## 1
Amino acid sequence: MENIIKKVKDGLGGKIKNWEEKNPGRIYITIDKENIRETARFIFEDCKARFIILTGIDTPLGYENLYHFDFDSIGTVVTVKTLIPKSAPEIESIATIIPGANFIEREVYDMLGIKFIGHPDPRRLLLSDDWPEGVHPLRRDFK
């Protein structure tokens, strides 16, 4: 585990704004949203972690995306956290790097309205094509 932690810390360097080891097997890394593609590529390709899922959350401070990666061989999950301002809800897509992110990015767009720039297939996934534009069911202001 120490080798993986060192590789991630060394590889991401100054991109890491915060590093938290909440308990054995769970690490949370906070980065700026501008660094998500490079960070995801590094963890997925260079460190050989498995992409699990993306979680989008509407918080009072903005939209938080949590990208969960599993280092199966050591039983450790690394979650990469980004904060996206509500005034500009967009972030670069990782789906061209990690094809498994395709559907979850589409779901997060439908439910929270976060646009994934450069997504290869930005069609709606869960909501119908005639769903009102700008209305997203998992936003705090949804009525």
## 2
Amino acid sequence: MTSELLTTGEAAALLGCSRQHVVDLCGRGDLPSLTVGSHRRLRRSDVERLARSGTRADARRLEQIRSLWLHRAVAGRLARDPERVLARATRNLDRLEQVHPTGTSARWLARWRALIADGPEAVMRALTAESTEADELRQNSPFAGVLPERERLAIIRATRRHAPPSGLRP
């Protein structure tokens, strides 16, 4: 039975996406999961069904576009008030590093900390870049709470209407 249950990291490897994307799929109800102790587990059959669906690449691209649009808005706030935005991100990093002291998330959080130490321009480039590394950074973003909820929801609605999956590289 346990070989039929996967961790989010194992599911991400099978799907060819980030662990955070798997967590997001579970949170939205797109991928069923179980809680074993304090850990999320996924049935191999559910993950394989999603992998065969043929829509995972399009869903992943749409998620990347939505994240990019949200982080472009964060970049706008960073341009207007770098001290406040970077202070918020630093507080979030402090909290996130307590929750994720090791593993892949910890490595991405350490990368954000280094970018913040390099200053607003380095952060701005990471927030708005269209690269695999930037996609992963945004999946582990310390910028929660920078955008007001109303603005965040408006951006999500706008990406549903206007951002085609072809808007990012394949």
